[in-house]
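sry for the spam today, last one i promise. struct tokens for design, 219 residues
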């Protein structure tokens, strides 16, 4: 890890360690997830002016009407995906700054991530390259369409809130695959898990959350 990734002051290892203790207190138990959050330099995924706040457990603006999710939510969604066992292929809807994909890439074999805002993609790719993450593929497209070329996926993670899950995404889920997404209108969102069973889609509501809405089309 280079000096920029190690951080200093409010981005130091000690600051990260405090964040991990907080995540433990909030109920995150998977040791691999906690270790990955600790080792992933969140401060390189935000604007330099916000770097000192990177290890606060809060969402931060990243431009284009998007946010980097709070570390607890990243850890929680990742942990829930992994509860079904090892994952070979995960689809992420909404690359954003690339932080969630970078966390996943250290825990699963292959990450496929779709971003509707073209301006976000080059920066995310640069960060993946800087961190040596070679198992992430990024595509500019409408997230609600998923990425049929590499389907089916063992896991799908949606990082913005639709009012209902696009059928296309459920169709790209492998048998016993898990899809996690914030679901609902602003102020009424629930983190929701969908599991593809042999003859149905099982649905479980987990907890109240607050995400930006899932927008359609490309930009």
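last one done:
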């Amino acid at each position: 890890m280079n000096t920029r990734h190690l951080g200093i002051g409010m981005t130091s290892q000690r600051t990260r360690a405090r964040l991990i203790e907080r995540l433990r207190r909030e109920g995150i138990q998977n040791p691999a997830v906690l270790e990955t959050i600790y080792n992933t330099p969140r401060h390189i995924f935000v604007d330099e002016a916000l770097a000192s706040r990177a290890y606060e457990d809060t969402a931060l603006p990243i431009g284009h009407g998007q946010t980097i999710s709070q570390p607890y939510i990243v850890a929680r969604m990742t942990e829930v995906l992994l509860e079904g066992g090892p994952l070979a292929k995960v689809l992420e809807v909404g690359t954003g700054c690339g932080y969630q994909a970078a966390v996943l890439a250290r825990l699963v074999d292959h990450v496929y991530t779709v971003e509707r805002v073209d301006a976000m993609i080059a920066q995310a790719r640069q960060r993946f390259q800087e961190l040596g993450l070679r198992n992430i593929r990024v595509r500019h497209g409408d997230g609600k369409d998923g990425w049929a070329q590499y389907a089916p996926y063992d896991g799908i993670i949606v990082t913005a809130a639709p009012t209902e899950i696009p059928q296309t995404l459920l169709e790209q889920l492998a048998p016993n695959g898990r899809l996690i997404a914030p679901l609902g209108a602003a102020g009424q969102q629930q983190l929701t898990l969908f599991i593809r069973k042999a003859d149905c889609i099982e649905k479980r509501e987990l907890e109240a959350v607050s995400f930006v809405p899932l927008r359609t089309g490309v930009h």
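The mean pLDDT is 91. ok im logging off now
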